[in-house]
Amino acid sequence: MPATSVDTFFACSLMVLLVLSAMAGASKVLYPQISNSVDEFAYERYMEISKHLLLNPGEPADWGQNSQVVPEKFGLAEANAEILYALDIDKVSRLNDQNRFSLSYAQMFASLKISDVSFRIEIEPIFEVSINLTATFHAENETIYKFEVSTEKQGAPVEAELKYYVVAENHFEGSQAHTSNGVAAFNVTLPENVGGPALLVVFAKAVYNIRMVSFSVYAFEHSLGEPQPVGTFLRLSPLNHTLEAFFGYQEITLTEAYALTFNYSSTLAKIANGNQSATYSIPCFQDSSPILLVVTGRNSTAFFAEWTSYPQVPLQTGVNFDDSTTISNVFAYSYIVTIDNALYRCKLWLGGPRL
């Protein structure tokens, strides 16, 4: 079979799989196997609950946008959504415990108003992006970093277009690449007079579906600047297209802030500044892509670059059923959902008390 025919067959198969997953939920049983009427009843009941979580906005319908509001009824759908399984970007972000305005599981459980059902929610991009620094070359006035990026889904390569950005002190640049069999290699060159550490942000857009966009971020040492774990200097909490940056230390000076997507980049306008926090406005991009938010600054003399995504995915929240000794019927349901016109995979586990 010619290579073009293989590519076409793969693309059509992938699209059919995505459509069927989005419509039917692609649910599967975790434990136990359905072997009696009780299990069948629980399976159907939990499936309806999982759909309710994703198809209803909850009450109030805009609870995600207001950091002080705890929903009276729990639901993740975008209010007045025109398509099914369209989730609200702020409701999703408030499921991530890295967000200062996140809901606790107790709040979610109480607002679901189903006292005999425990649940877990996971949301992530449909495919994975991995970044590896494979070589470093030092020249007289610059350093060249060689990176390899792979895009895959469960071990299978995903053909993708790449857009990558490099952020360092007083330095910002963007460029493009393309994966061949799910792998791309490129060089990043930084002058020695640019302060580090540096941040590499990579977006990957699947060739066969422009709404399938994933991302990864890689912090690396440059000019003696060593990267620290995410959240060391700032706690970044996006909500209602506003970014709140809460300081982790007393002596913090912010320098630049960026909003990055696959097709667009923009500096953020600071709309408020306090002793221990700053607030930025997040643009509304017409792009089927998550937004990566990067804020740079200094802690005394050390440069840093902190980042988060909007929506704040991947995320995991809820009950860890692996450690449960009181749950007998546990089922998992997998859906393809839309958040700001980009596709993600949402997996829900639901379980009830041991009978």
Describe the structure.
The protein is of the alpha+beta class. It has a domain at 3-124 and 314-353. 15% of the residues lie in helices and 47% in strands. The protein is built from 4 helices and 22 strands. It has helices at 3-24, 37-55, 89-93, 105-112; strands at 28-31, 86-87, 118-125, 128-138, 142-153, 156-157, 160-169, 171-178, 183-191, 195-206, 213-220, 234-239, 242-247, 252-260, 265-267, 269-273, 277-281, 291-299, 302-310, 315-318, 327-339, 342-353. The strands form 5 sheets. Strands 1, 2, 3, 20, 21 and 22 form a 6-stranded mixed beta sheet that branches. Strand 12 (234-239) and strand 13 (242-247) form a beta hairpin. The longest helix has 22 residues, at 3-24. The radius of gyration is 22 Å and the shape is globular. It starts with a helix and ends with a strand. The relative contact order is 0.18.
Chain-wise SSE layout:
Elements: H1 3-24, E1 28-31, H2 37-55, E2 86-87, H3 89-93, H4 105-112, E3 118-125, E4 128-138, E5 142-153, E6 156-157, E7 160-169, E8 171-178, E9 183-191, E10 195-206, E11 213-220, E12 234-239, E13 242-247, E14 252-260, E15 265-267, E16 269-273, E17 277-281, E18 291-299, E19 302-310, E20 315-318, E21 327-339, E22 342-353
Parallel strand pairs: 2-21
Antiparallel strand pairs: 1-21, 3-20, 3-22, 4-5, 5-6, 5-9, 7-8, 7-10, 10-11, 12-13, 13-17, 14-15, 14-18, 16-17, 18-19, 21-22
